[in-house]
Amino acid sequence: MKFFGRDLVTTKWTSHLLAGIVVLAIAHMLSGALIIASLAQLLLVLFLLLGWPRFSSMARLLVIACILMSLFAIWWLPAPWVVLHEAAAGFVFLAAFMTVLALLRLPAYRSKLIHRCGQSLLMQPPTWRYPMLSLGSTLFGIVLNFGVLNLFMSMIDKANTLGAAQGRVWVQEVRRRRMLLATLRGFTLAPLVSPLGIGVAVVLGNLESLTWGELFPYVLASATVLFLLGWGCDQLAGPRPRAVKT
């Protein structure tokens, strides 16, 4: 009970720190005050220290890599603090950005509309369920970015109940796997087809004579091939037609 209570206190404080980081990040973008940015970075350091025991192995490796790169910058650069401050500001923005996107999961779990959308998807034949999820996550991903994963996965988890699978656990697991893969594959197409995507921005930035209109046919063809390939893999990996529909 002692460790359980300590874990609750740690969770509470880490949540407060993340909320403070979000508020300070927004305040810094609006005001540009240096003191606000420094305070947000301090809260981020406290969050990393407090949450360290609960981090996964990959998260710890990333934190250690950041520390090593910071030490290397201090040793190598003649004026490292300016560079480290800019890097920390980007780290704060990323933490605030991911926290805000994660909040989409809360209203999604409580929304009756999201629940009805998930049930409607489950009622579709498996052949058409994949394109609906994949293309939907692509279109929503252009607007919501990573937030589409929280939104769609919440919809899937809420609709894909054991009751909807008529008590068959294997049906529930197969549905979850296929629907999550469809969502993830569709999301990976969003940066490719969106004019605001990183990949498109890099190409257009390095080829100044190239316009989005000239690039779009090639982007659309590549996205179509990847979509059809994912759809085909979904059909091959799914149960045979004689099996119970999943």
Number of strands: 0
Number of self-contained structural domains? 2
Give the helix tally: 11
Q: Based on helices, strands and strand pairing, what is the structural class? A: mainly alpha
On the 0 to 100 scale, the average pLDDT is 81
Query: What is Rg?
Result: 22 Å
* Helix proportion range: over 70%
Strand content: under 5%
Largest sheet: none
- The best one-word shape is globular
| First-to-last CA distance | 42 Å
Low-confidence stretches: 241-246
**Helix/strand order, N-terminal first:** HHHHHHHHHHH
Report on this model:
- This protein has 2 domains: 102 residues, no CATH class; 130 residues, no CATH class.
- It is built from 11 helices and no strands.
Ordered list of secondary-structure elements with their pairings:
Layout: H1 2-31, H2 34-51, H3 57-76, H4 80-102, H5 105-110, H6 112-122, H7 126-144, H8 147-159, H9 169-193, H10 198-206, H11 212-237
Helix pairs in contact: 1-2, 1-4, 2-4, 3-4, 6-8, 7-8, 7-9, 7-11, 8-9, 9-11
